[in-house]
Amino acid sequence: xxxxxxxxxAESDPAALLRAKLLAAVEKWRDRARGKIFKLKQAAADxxxxxxxxxxxxxxxxxxxxxxxxxxxxxxPNMFGGPDLVIPLEKAKSPxxxxxxxxxxxxxxxxxxxxxxxRSAAEEKSLxxxxxxxxxxxxADLASLREIEVRLQSAGLFPRPVKMQEIVRSEKKxxxxxxxxxxxDILVGRNAVENxxxxxxxxxxxxxxxxxxxxxxxxxxxxxxxxxxLPQETILDAxxxxxxxxxxxxxxxxxxxxxxxxxxxxxKHAPAGTVIVQKGKTIRLKIEPARLERLMEPARRxxxx
Length: 305
Description:
The protein has 305 residues and is of the alpha+beta class.
């Protein structure tokens, strides 16, 4: 009889089972990372117009007095030589408004370039970092495999076991509840329907309203006592939660929009949770791990992270 495991023996070997699960999880993660890199390369092509838009903006700025109002486009000399530039314009806007609109497009595209480059580098780095994990898993005994499993769970590469109490609690309705450093209640919607109910029914006019800027995410409402204003620390706490409960989760810097709830209205003929925000202010927020941990720790104790 050979020393190799038969299929039935392998099925009853905890180390072999865990090893197979870990290797499968790592390969699935690699496939996902490669897919993200491919999509990011496609996104890079979409943001490649940043240089062109900046050239358009600078050219419009130099020739502002020469541009007729109401034109659909204007042809101007290229300051770097070469063919003249044909710059599209919006008829309803003045030359100065068109120039500002072009610069706005440029800044958006430029930020997109930076973000695409940052995310691509992060995905490539993670692939390199995980390059030797297969050999480590193959050589590990059961105790070491369990340590690797914990590491992968912490990195989000392998699902942690779901506790029964989490399944029961997940059926609860109503927004998540947090408490700011100033002791104010912060409510976070769990889905589109809850977002709408929270923003348009539960929130009072002078409550603070927060949402990740230009990203899908939860509506966040801060209960503000009558006659009081939002403290700065509470604003940072609520903005941190809005970023965490959105597509911005995991980024070191996030932009969050905030206003008072009375300036948030439902968008007509739009899906649930879609709102129109007036008098919004943008916070460029550097995520502080210690702040996030303070806010999330009570929720983790209840299994409601």
